[in-house]
Please model this.
Amino acid sequence: MAQLSFRDRFFSPPVARALTSPSGILALGAGAAVGVLATLATGGLAGPIIGGVVGGLVGYSGRIALALPPKGTGPRIDPFGVDEPWRHAVRDAVHARNRFREAVRTFRSGPLQDTVRGLGDQLDQAVEEVWAVAQQGQQVAEARKRIDDREIRWELQRAASQIPPGAAATPVQEQTVEALNEQLASGARMDAIMRSTFDELNLLNARLDQAVTQAIELSVTNREGGFAPVGSDVRAIVDQLGALHQAMSDLDGPTASTVESAPPSDQEAPRTAPPATGPTSPTSPPSAPDPR
Model:
């Protein structure tokens, strides 16, 4: 199992829960009380205040330390903790790792088995990266659900209909239409991000399956030297998954590049001109890509 860094262990769900849990607050209060009582004999106000602050920090830090996951264990990976299509990607990665583990159990003891175990650690890391990307993709999908394209288009139609035919829009009307179009653009960017991320996950999972198959084939032929290229392939996959993970982590708002890369919508929203006469059918938000 791949070793977790202190940063990964600290920024984990158990620690996040401990920060705001009743037990964390109690530990803070208890530590502060002990610090105050321990410094009352010093006289004055400075001693108890400093003692309370230090005691509170010690108590709170102790509660957080207890919540840190063990260094040698990775995150609990549950494909059903995310929705489709992210669940499909996680299950593919876990399946590839399980195939490898089953094959390793059949290997005879010796140098080949030691080499294969090192490859297993890299596969563990790859699966953890897939899980991290899938969780971030799930967060984007949840945020996307809160953008109602149909309602925004209706608001856009209403705003545009208030502009007399052939007349110029007022500054307020222009800003209203622009704000509504920006909301639609945000939804389009999120759709593009989800599609591209899922496509990359599919590609990297396919390469992971290929590496596992090659490793199993080499184990049958007892060609220990052939594992070096396979190990390099898996390391490259882990690096690319890490880059994808980082790219999703850095996603903190719209950028010019994502606007340009977003695919055009089937129904372009009007800017400042009034809508065409006749009813328009509402457009539902684009759905996340189906698992392949």
Remarks:
- The chain has two domains: 1-76, 79-292.
- Residues 171-221 form the longest helix (51 residues).
